[in-house]
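Think of the structure tokens as a kind of shorthand, similar to the way a musician reads notation: each symbol stands for something richer, in this case the local conformation of the backbone. In the example below we present two proteins back to back. Begin with the first one, reading the sequence and then the tokens, and try to describe in your own words what changes along the chain.
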Amino acid sequence: MKALFRFKSFLIDPTRRSTVLVSFSPFSKSSKSKTRDTQRQKIQAEATSITSLFNEITEILGSDVVQSDQTSQLRLPLSGSDGALVSCTQSVRENVRMGFSNENEEANQGIVVVSEEFDVSPLVHEITSVIREDDDIMVSMEDKLEKLSFLFEPEIVEKVLKRCFKVPHLALRFFNWVKEKDGFSHTVGVYNTMLSIAGEARDLDMVEELVKDMERNSCDKDIKTWSILISVYGKAKKIGKGLLVFEKMRKDGFEPDAAAYNIMIRSLCVAGRGDLAVEFYKEMIEKGITFGLRTYKMLLDCTAKTEEVGVVQSIADDMVRICEVSEHDAFGYLLKSFCVSGKIREALELIRVLKNKEVCIDAKYFEILVKGLCRANRMEDALEIVDIMKKRNMDDLNINGIMISGYLRQNNVSKALEHLEAIRNSKLLPRVSTYTEIMQHLFKEKEFQKGCDLFKEMVDNGIEPDSVAITAVVAGYLGQNRVEEAWKVFSSMEEKGIKPTWKSYSIFAKELCKSAKYDEILKLLNQMHVSKIAIRDDMFSWVISCMEKHGGKEKIEHIKELQKKCKFHTELRQEEELVDDCNRPQVVQHSALPAASSAVDIMNVQEICRILLSSRDWERTQESLEISTVKFTPELVVEVLRNGKIHGNAVLRFFSWVGKRNGYKHSSEAYNMSIKVAGCGKDFKQMRNLFYEMRRQGCVVTQDTWAIMIMQYGRTGLTDIAIRTFKEMKDTGLSPRPSTFKCLITVLCEKKGRNVEETIRTFREMIRLGFVPDKELVQDYLGCLCEVGNTKEAKHCLDSLGKIGFSVPVAYSIYIRALCRIGKLEEAQSELASFKGERSLLDQFTYGSIVHGLLQKGQLQGALDKVNSMKEVGIKPGVHVYTSLIVHFFKEKQIDKVIETCKKMEEESCEPTVVTYTAMICGYMSVGKAKKAWRVFNDMKEKGTSPDFKTYSKFINCLCQAGESEDALRLLSEMLDKGIAPSTVNFRTVLYGLNREGKQDLARSVLQKKSALLAQRKVST
């Protein structure tokens, strides 16, 4: 490949090492020329040229007359440029539907699917616990693993390793131990996971040893292996090795896919090798492969530093054609790239093109241009642009902040203060970031009193200081060796409801190190530990190093002891990040959130939701919200969050924005709903942040808040964290309510993350406190106990329920139903026969379950006899009985009987439920009658019964099994339109189905939908 040969020649030829790798324009900070005279001549000529061009641009910007240009490409006047890329073909535009439209490009490749026939999660959890709790001196991790007597299958090993990303040394020990087990050999999936762990730990020696181990054991690499290796070397900035791996991949017969190209190009951009990145990009385009917007922006920024203006323009053109970015946004990205790279001439040329094309030059473009001029130290020119903005009534605080930053970058504090005074005179309030930046420079210049006066002015003007501003003042006091006052200012953060960040602590610690205040440093580190702020190893390292240099050796042991204590502080966050994604549908949430408020105007809610979903550009959305006439109240915010739950990213941004408005304050209910929205999108980092923010703002944290978090953790299988959260709630002094117990017990009973021992303990605690569980909770609990075969505890539960006033017949009916569901019909009938209470009532409650159990066993006549006997005592069959009969008849292929049963239901005015409709849809699909299945599906909607998650999920499975995956894809889209989030299994089922049917283009669109949904639901990245 051309790019690789160019790189190799650079390595081999020593005469080339002194040459410039990338040629920048004369106005870039990195530009060089052969002689100083030539440099001066070029700069003078360019300066004259740019001055002329700038004058022309200022005239254009200040004029209302424009020349129309109908061209649709982002082209600037070029002088002999031949670097433009070929335009994209239609195939490229079609292939953009691959699952690389956002930054899940790497993750979507090579996913290893675990069989769903057997849930290995409990085994994985137990093995992981042994590995990660390797703190027993007497018994080694290996001995504990031996005692488990598990059969270590590759899929289990791989899942265990995925939970050990942050403990690579333990992962390697487990990897090496299991390798020696008789009959076990690592698969390529296991090796790939281990390579990812080594890469994450930046342990390149381990990476190379693992590759050698693969070769020794004749384990062939797959495309994911090569992609991981390229990524590892790219992140480590080992570009040479990355290129060699890329070439080896080709030689091994693997054609690079989009993920491999994406990783390679991003690595080259990070290393500043835009020339090589463009070579790879050209190759991708020729093959009809593309990638996501973020990578395009990286490539644009990198190539903008070169002299190949035509290449930069072509990339911007491709962003419009391929990524479906608006021309307005693409111009913005291009302008920003030129300005960041110091290409002022090209930026001004682009402004001229924008005006000729009648593109609206809004504040966004002005801001980028002003920032670019300030970076290039052209402050006078930047001021002219600001004047034009004022004439257009586009004066903006962002622009003023940029100007002040520009002056401070030149160390011209007096000019910055003059500009600040001009802002004051215009009756605008400067931003807190502007005040902070000036204060930092004043403290740096030993103008301590001026800095303090500025801070006082900011507070007096009603501008709330943030953690950065307060930290700047702390640093100022420490610079004056006034430690006690610094501590007072730092402590004021908590009083203001601001949580000090890691950066704040870091600056505080560094300033204390400068003045050798080691007792204060120890106090600060202890406070970080108590506040659950992760203290990174590098922070401990430079604190210890500083102590060794300045004679604080006696304190070092205390620091090292604290370091040991902090090692497991981030365990909660790691488990949230590393636990395998839950592959089951989302369940109905049990929380005590209030119902929709009747006091809220539904039209206002719809208006806000429309604004939030109208654009992906948050700045535009924010502008629309600002001009909205809707009055924002906590009740309105709750309803917006409730209605836009599936659009977590947008509604949580709205929640943050509205919380900063003057005169508005979030209620506890609003925070509860925001926490629920974040949890529903599995954005646990954001969920916790909202919880901490809620406490800082002084909102009442009730049991409902904790119950929501418990449910969100538990529903994704993170039951250990749910249990810890429950205990954390009790540690705060809050006593659990029945709803809190219900949330925890419900998630502990589910198959994913099931913990029977903890379930029993929690249920007994609930009963001991005198709380009476509702029928739904008893169903979950007894169902769980019966599924694991713990009938002894189930009977103990029945006795306990009777003592606290729970209806005995209802309790026994739930128990009998649970036995029937798991096929233990004989035990169920025995319990029914031995019941000593009111038998007729129990018969009425259980006969539907008995019928269901008989039909499961194939005993149709027995089931019909049971139905007839109940009719004789005046009890008609319910919808549950009819549904069971329909399922049985479909199973036996007796379609006439199905139709007859449906007619009986209609005659007896027995309305079918969503379960009945779902059974009929699956039944018709099982006998090859897809058209009738679709008719039932449409009928249920027409009659007012909305399909739920299970209906969609089962219909999708049936369609894919029948070779009609394209229709299943349509159902995925319908789910999203109705606000129902498809699960990972849904996406995977349709993806595999389409691939089996040879519809690869549509399969790529499935990945794109999945990636878009993830981005739509999460704020954290």
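Once you have a description of the first chain, move to the second and do the same.
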Amino acid sequence: MTTLASQSEKKVKSTSPSPLPKAAHLLPPEEVAKALSTDSEGLSDEQASSKLTIYGRNELEDVGGPSAIRIFIKQVVNAMMLVLILAMIVTFVIKSWISAGVVVAVVVMNITVGFVQEYAAEKTMESLRSLSSPTARVIRSSQTKVIVTAELVPGDVVELKVGDTIPADIRLMECMNFETDEALLTGESLPVVKEAAVVYKEEQNVGVGDRLNLAYSSATVTKGRAKGYVYATGMNTEIGHIARSLKGKNSRFRRPIPKESGKVTVGAYVRAAFGTIKDTVFRFLGLNVGTPLQRKLSKLALILFAIAVVFAIIVLAANKFSNNSEVIIYAVATALSMIPASLVVVLTITMSMGTKRMVKRNVIVRNMNALESLGAVTNICSDKTGTITQGRMVAKRAYIPAYGTFTVDDIRDPNNPTDGNITFSSLSPVEADTRMHDDNGAEPTKVSDVTTHTKAPAFESFLRVASLCNLATVHQGPNGQWAARGDPTEIGIQVFASRFQFSREAQLVPTAAQTTEASSSETVTASTDPKKQWVQLAEFPFDSDVKRMSVVFRRLSGRSDVVFMKGAVERILNACTTIRTKEGDVVIAEQHKTDILANMEILAGEGLRVLALALRDWTEAVEEWRGYPRENVEKDMTFLGLIGLYDPPRPESFASVKKCHQAGITVHMLTGDHKATAQAIAQQVGIIPKALYKVPSHILSAVVMTAGEFDQLSDDEVDALPILPLVLARCAPQTKVRMVNALHRRGCFVAMTGDGVNDSPSLKEADVGIAMGTGSDVAKGAADIVLTDDNFASILNAIEEGRRIFDNLKKFVLHILAENVCQACTLLIGLAFKDSTGLSVFPLSPVEVMWIILITSGFPDFGLGMISATPDVMTRPPHDRRRGVFTIEVLLDIAVYGIWMSALCLASFVLVVYGWGSGELGNNCNGEYNASCDTVFRARATTFTCLTWFALFLAWEMIDLRRSFFRMQPGSKNYFTQWAIDAWKEKFLFGSIVFGFVTIFPILYIPVLNEKVFAHTGISWEWGIVFVEALLFFLGVEAWKWAKRVWVRHYLKDDVAHDPENDLEAGGAFSRYTTMMTIDTVASTNEKGRRGGGKRR
């Protein structure tokens, strides 16, 4: 088959970057390093910065940043602008030059403002996209760092592990069971097994897909780990050559689909043409681009456009379809009154500003849909390690059945093996616990000389497994500071071994012979150092399914091979046939397993993550370890002991979990740890109550479960549980998926965290997938948002920000549509005002309508999109995403506010014309000023002023949809000035409202501008009407808000989130679990959930 790679080789020759004397696959790693001026300790920061200047960023060429031309065209060619352009054409056709000129000015201003705002929003999104790009783990100046992939340079040393997307073209120098998926590059579906030691000869003419010593950019690591030197970045990579050869081939035209015979019929071309036209029209209307809410609002705009046409027809019909220019202008004004011109652009800007705010709160949004979804989250399924806890493991207890128990306390630096106090007891944890309760406990002795203990063979074997079945390294820098590289769990174990002078580096043969995993170690000669006698032959990495890791080492001094293993206690016990005791190695019996599990329970009950260690002698001859079945190795092991690691909860986790409960969000902890460990940590952070004895036993059995217990249940049995587990221990990836599905069946909206490759299915299945910043690229690719600090508190930040954005969307949509309803009602009812010729006299002129929609209220709409969260944002339950922005409350608010403002506007017009005026509507008062139109022009100016004030005041009232504008902070003591403080707090909104107030005066009083352009005149005594109606406006809005608060308080109690996680001792902690519903009620609830459940994107 002809692959993309072969195509690229034909069109663009793949050449190595200039620093290499020849292609990377033809050079050994040492020569590559030399040519790139680097070594295994990596580049210095200064070297990396210099190389970045020389070689540029590690990025493929694309469309570049935001296109000003594209954004400008988008402002001109859209449904909303089309309405304005049609209005402009109509005004030109009827030769209403002033109206036409004003419409042109408004169109230009709207395009300009929209362009500036959206260009800024695009720039913001561009910067955020760079933040959400993949990261790479590099070694620089002997320190492991995580950097953005784009900052990689030739010479960087990159570490790769399962799930990583390879960030650049790399010459491998170390491999361990390393395989990559290069289908994107070569078209081959099977993973490629890599071999770092291979060096090819030029005459071999090895193709791209057969260069086993290279790892290519954009490929995915499917197995093992590796380390290598970056030799090509950006467009110099193999995938860069392909990108260059394919540049410009993307098309928005649909291609005809051939029949099975391969023949393309005329009908296929016709369907492709119609499909292309449909896509273009829908894209123009915004119906197939953007987020679901953007598409929904585009549909709304289309509906409003149709309504506007209907209203225009109503106006024409009411005037007997007269071709009088005044009638046509009235129809244009009525149509324009229903067009929310700024709706979509305000939405775009609000969402882009929201993503920018999230970055400051350690959240990167990868999928804009998540902004709409976060506020609807009802359940969070979170990992424990590194998210709820600090991810800084400290080995605090070690139990060796053949020797005793070690305890480490007073640790200040988790990476420093010399820090802390070590004590030893010959008792097991169970024995020590029993004697302590009997007041007969023997005091442990302080360890002052570690060598007195390392001489014990059982403990020596334990330490050797701890250090060698471990990929982490611990070292002291030149400044005396201790640093570590690797997984936090392995670092904790490695530090423990280093406390007894059994570090990994202290035992490995000091040669470069460990770059491969085959029998190449046969060539290694024994070290003169009696301790450094070990060389690695094979590795079977930790897997979330088997939950253990094994390595095979050879001791060169005795030519003996040994298998070292660590992992979950149950999984290690299943692989063991013997146990090392004080009497020697004996066959492991059920009593031994019972004792081990009892000791594990004691350690886990202290909140420790407990792992087991084991070993076995290996006597079989294996020619090639690659592909060798791990089940043949991981059996007949000898159990050595337990090690307990403490990962302290983050200080902010308890408060964050508490806030989640207050917000009506249930937190579930899904962890691979032991049940007792998970339960202890969950109690510390408030996920489950500390006083579990108050929870009924049938509820308690469901609150804390293991994955084994959960997976044994059928879906019906899971649905019959009184509550889904709040703690799920020993959790496997497939269990997470089942948990998400079970929550969906109960009608829940789920956020799921994950960091590993195997977490990607559950991240995709969840409504909001949350990846960790330090997680695999595969997990990040499946997620909707990424936490840069891996902190549970950041999930709460994301939800709070999501709720704020959603609230603000509701507020400005309500503000825009309420004004549309007001203007439409005013103009339609105003059809009843007819002059002596029988033609309707509009209470608002077309220019006034456009000014209010686009200028007066346009900027406050932007301000409403940026306002701060209301005080109750995290004490309300999650919103119902199925209803979205248009809840019953919002629809009622639109109607009530719109009709109330319209009534006041019409009242002002009537009062001026009929109350204190002559009642005469003059002649030709829709066109230009004459003596008979003075009253109409003054009434129109009064109506315009009232509506302008209402639009501005309504924006302030929208800051909180229920609380009084004069009392938005319930706990404030500033009874008379708090409203001013709140108004000033939102600076942009405040400035836009002041701008609206200021601009009304020149519009009213500048000659020519008032009468010729806006078709009104200056007012005097009419200001009294304006002030009275402004007061009535506030009274009406405040009365409606008061009525809503009364309704919520008495009839809608569920609209306030209930916090069931108050202290049990106070009578309310987890009270729903002490008075849980019956199984029948749960079944009924589940049935409702099934009808409305399932994943909702």
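Compare your description with these statements about the second chain. The radius of gyration is 36 Å.
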